[in-house]
Amino acid sequence: MKKYVSDVITTKHINNWNNGDVILITAPTGRGKSTLILRDLQEIAKLENEKILLLTNRDLLKNQFKNIITTTDTIKVINYQLLENIILNQKEIKELSNYKYIICDEAHYFFTDSGFNNLTDLSLKWILEQYDKIRIMMSATASTITNYIKQIGIEFKEYKLKHDYSYIDTLYFYEDDQVLKKMLFELPSNEKALYFTLAKKAYETSQELDNASFLCSKHNKRYSQYVDNEIRKQIVEQDMFSSQILCTTTTLDNGVNIKDNQVKHIIIDVFDVDTIEQCLGRRRIGQGEKTNVYIKKYSNQSLSGKRQGLINTMRYANMLRNEGIEELIKQYPRKSYGNLIYDVVDNGNVQKRINEIMYFKCEDTINFCDDLLSSNKKDNYARYIAKRFKYDYKNTFNLDDMYNCLTLSDKLEKLIGIKLYKQDQLKLIDDIDVRVDGKQQRSISKLNEGLKMLKLPYLIIKNVDKDRKLLNGEDNPNRDKTYWQVIKSLG
Questions:
Q1: Where are the domains positioned within the chain?
Q2: 382 neighbors 146 (Cβ within 8 angstroms)
Q3: pTM, two decimal places
């Protein structure tokens, strides 16, 4: 029988927590971690006339919490990033001292985000130094933060629930992104997919596929302008998305709920295993529901390369730690030492310090790679993922063996008979991509010449839409507009 957080943490447990306690709660998604905050702890805090500071790691998650919190006088919700900015600029710290309970939701954030946010150490250090507060850290993947807290000698109370991966119908691995696109291109119309990857790849894939939308962090300077804000709103307010395929970065990976039984496919192109597990947790699975999971495969050679890259990243920090700042500057003068090392002013002197959270995460990842590479078997990463999700590796499938690459012919075949107006015409121009002296050609005649050169049996024709009504009886908004159509060529 499935257990919930309320089964292992009762109001009696909460009442026995004391100022200074560190509480670690490890529980899969959908097991009531939020209920603990919004119902049990909130009621106790109200009776005590105390306040709760709830820290989240994503704007989407913060907004979802704000939508369901009933008493804002008791709970204040802010992002870790805001807290880090406050600490960095030494602002408003006193205001944050009024809270008895500090809740760190998605507490793996300090480590999983440290690869691209070099300030996560500030928030964790500040939280751990609030000795007069009750500090509650919650995550579905708390192993790294648990190991870190053990290493620095902090005592804690731990509550754990086991994971259940029985909802995984079939586990696939893949290497070729074009093969993945072919699979997504051929999705049945009544099925949806959730695709996690880097911003550039997520955006480009969303542009290449039909009925696909794109999400990334609003702080991504390059790609945030392309975010589908209507889809973002749907996720916050309705826990679903209307497009068939959602291509997103891991900005969606933490705490956000997708409750949509049409989402039958979850694709994850991420290396970090804790992040993979967080991505899986975004789809809340109902009783008896199943989903297919697709994980990007990393070869043993890729693991070796990642390991060596991290060793190179750590070399300056290791020299600073083992031989001191003078030796570091002597051996590597006028160097940028990367995000692992930062400057502080100490008694009027500038000193160099190591970002201990980033350092710990690098060490942890190197150890992970070493463990996998110690086996002589092939595909150790994929084998580990299968074992982690309690799935027999012999029963997994290689997507690359099941699909060919997505081709222009596939796209043209799907467009036959469809009326293509301005936006769809521009997309078709990009797909065919006929160029003369480097300049993209946009006329139908040039596009047809390109198709002929490629020996593809298709033609593009154009007509004017004269239909007054659509099939559903509504007025045709495209009446008298020129449209293109793809047809089969007879020649």
A1: 5-160, 168-299+379-401, 300-373, 408-488
A2: no
A3: 0.81
Q: Is 277 left (phi over 0), alpha (psi -120 to 50) or beta?
A: alpha
Query: Which residue has tokens 């480590």?
Result: 111
Q: Give the pLDDT score at 253.
A: 47
Torsion, CA 259, CA 262, CA 267, CA 268, rounded to 10: 0
5-160: which CATH topology?
Rossmann fold (3.40.50)
- The rounded Cα 396 to chain-centroid distance in angstroms is 23
Q: Are 228 and 261 in contact (CB under 8 A)?
A: no
Q: Measure Cα distances from 241 to 29, 210, 231, 266, 271 in Å.
A: 19, 15, 6, 14, 25
Bridge partners (DSSP) of residue 158 are 24
In this structure, is the dihedral angle defined by the CA atoms of residues 440, 445, 451 and 452, taken in order, positive or negative? negative
In Å, how far are 164, 180, 272, 477 from 194, measured between CA atoms?
A: 20, 12, 18, 32
Q: Are strands 245-248 and 341-346 parallel, antiparallel or unpaired?
A: unpaired
Consecutive 10-residue averages of pLDDT for the chain (491 residues): 84 94 90 79 91 82 58 81 87 80 92 89 95 94 92 95 92 95 93 97 94 91 94 89 95 72 96 92 85 96 96 95 94 90 87 94 96 90 96 95 84 90 91 90 93 91 92 89 91 64
Token duo for residue 115: 């690869």
Spatial contact of 118 and 358, defined as CB atoms under 8 Å apart: yes
Q: Please report the DSSP string for 70-92 in residue order.
A: S-TTTEEEEEHHHHHHHHHTT-S
SS3 content of the chain, % helix, strand, coil (to 5): 40, 20, 35
* CB contact at 8 A, 184 and 174: no
**Domain range 168-299+379-401, CATH architecture:** 3-Layer(aba) Sandwich (3.40)
CB 207 within 8 A of CB 175: no
Instruction: Indicate if the alpha-carbon torsion angle 425, 427, 433, 438 is positive or negative.
Output: positive
Contacts of 28 by beta carbon, 8 Å cutoff, 6+ apart: 140, 161, 162, 163, 164, 281
Helix (H) or strand (E) holding 309: helix 300-323
* Integer Cα distance of 339 and 337 in angstroms: 7
